[in-house]
Amino acid sequence: GQNIDQPTEMTATEGAIVQINCTYQTSGFNGLFWYQQHAGEAPTFLSYNVLDGLEEKGRFSSFLSRSKGYSYLLLKELQMKDSASYLCAVMDSNYQLIWGAGTKLIIKP
Amino acid sequence: DTEVTQTPKHLVMGMTNKKSLKCEQHMGHRAMYWYKQKAKKPPELMFVYSYEKLSINESVPSRFSPECPNSSLLNLHLHALQPEDSALYLCASSPVVGSGANVLTFGAGSRLTVL
């Protein structure tokens, strides 16, 4: 079966750095996405990785290791508005998105 | 225009009602999607339209009926729903289906409550 694992909930402090991990086992791989979703709102796209390595975009970075079936999302200089759920999703060999259950990130002052 | 617009934002309906959810995008995307999302769960794919043709139906009950009148519009017709169908219904679009870097743009969602 296809499976994506990420922690259910994480807590971090405003101004700090947090790393949200995602491991996956899927039928093929055509890229990994990270989406941010605030409570009651729609998911918004953060990043896409298809090759190994780190992609940096402002305060957010995403890393991929295809051989390990592993990705992480790194958030720096945390702000209160970063409190949200972070969804990891993998595109499989049929170009279908397989979603993780999401990580709820709580930012404390 | 980089938005996906969904109406209504909130909908309350009885189990015998017929209602529709509407979605519109003007980004020239040729793929449109309906997802269902329950609280604290990831989105569940319901339907995919590619070039206005239904390409994926994820074994969704017939009380949900999708329609794609043109490349910019997507509807979801609702009839004889059950209370367990209460959820956030998300519309999304992407440039195409079957491409790796296929970023989905989501609408704000329609929150449906079935009494």
Overview of this structure, please?
The complex is a heterodimer of chains A (109) and B (115). Chain A has strands spanning 3-5, 9-13, 18-25, 32-37, 44-49, 53-57, 60-65, 70-75, 84-91, 97-99, 103-108. With 109 residues, chain A is mainly beta. Chain B is mainly beta. In chain B, 0% of the residues lie in helices and 56% in strands. In chain B, strands 2, 4, 5, 6, 9, 10 and 11 form a seven-stranded mixed beta sheet that branches. Chain B has a four-stranded antiparallel beta sheet with strand order 1-3-8-7, with no helix packed on it. In chain B, strand 7 and strand 8 (73-79) form a beta hairpin. The termini of chain B are far apart. The model of chain B has no long low-confidence stretch (mean pLDDT 93). At the A-B interface, strand 5 and strand 9 of A face strand 10 of B.
Radius of gyration of chain B, in Å, reads 13 Å
Q: N- to C-terminal separation of chain B?
A: 36 Å
**Broad structural category of chain A:** mainly beta
Largest sheet of chain A: 6 strands, mixed
Biggest sheet of chain B: strands, sense, closure?
7 strands, mixed
Short description:
Chain A is mainly β. Helix content of chain A is 0%, strand content 57%.
